[in-house]
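Every protein is a chain of amino acids, and every chain bends into a shape of its own. The fold becomes a row of whole numbers, each drawn from a learned catalogue of backbone shapes. The protein below has been through that process, and both of its lines are reproduced in full.
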Amino acid sequence: MPKPSSRAEPPSPDESLADTPYSHKGLTYPLGRSGPAAGEVTALADGVGWTRSPVPGSLNHINLWLLEDGDGVALVDSGLDIPPAREAWEALFAGPLAGQTVTRVICTHFHPDHLGLAGWLCEMFGVRLWMTRGEWLFARMLTTDVRDAPPAEATAYWRAAGWDEERIAAETEKGWGRFASVVSPVPVSYVRLQEGDTVRIGARDWRVVVGSGHSPEHACLVDEAGKLMIAGDQVLPRITSNVSLALSEPEADPLGEWLDSIAKLRRLPDDLLVLPSHGEPFTGLHARLDALAEGHRGRLDALHDHLAEPRRAVDCFSILFGRAIGDGVYGLATGEALAHLRHLQAGGRARREVRDGVAWYRQAAA
């Protein structure tokens, strides 16, 4: 999901122009600012449809893709397991997809807005789930790890980041395993997607391109002949994806992986129509990747300057996000701050010292 500092472009001053192509910051949006409503389908290209599923909060929606697949349709991503999202699928199967069979369900990655209804759809149509191994394993793990209280490692993680005891107590009261509350049971069998695989869906060949940093093994699907890229959360047009240091792998460098993935994706053709999970389809892949990389590097430099004095992760929010961080995104902001601090540490630009369970970061000596 997007990072706490994400800022959407302002709405069009003239809603009558919502479907008019336009350009902004090096990107072109050939279908304009609008998108299909839940339960509706917009045709993008031969055999490729676009629909949306509702998401609570500022995100508002997730884009889902419908790919003609022989006598049926393959679904890419599924939406959250919440009543409005189930109702949106039911409206599709009663309307634009009436009489169609689903051939497979493909998920770009394990996050709930992408995976939430995949198990429900697979069971409904008796089909397989297609994912990368890392994403499927993570989803299986998270949906089974449900308990009354957070593990001790989680409390230590929050305390190390600089959370006060009141905030830790409030988070502890919520229990552990909320992921499972918005994800239907994940199938115990799946079809593995791997880097470089070519997946034939209908008349199109989609190459699997794997990125990481936002999630372990995020699958993008690229049809170079048809000039299309299903980008998931790996490339979004106007907001940036959350890159967090996860409790499960505290010595990893997810931001380093994210920047490496940006460099890898930049080797793709620049004339692809990018189909993102949030926002509208756009062209200008290289310009967007460059902006994402430059944005992170700028924040890293500013954060490095901020570490002239020892700082905790929570002391870095103002540098990274430029606005107050509310309770609803405090955890995301913490993970993002830790990812940036860890990247500076991994690159030798910062050092970490733990005192009384709290991690303090400071510029490394020259």
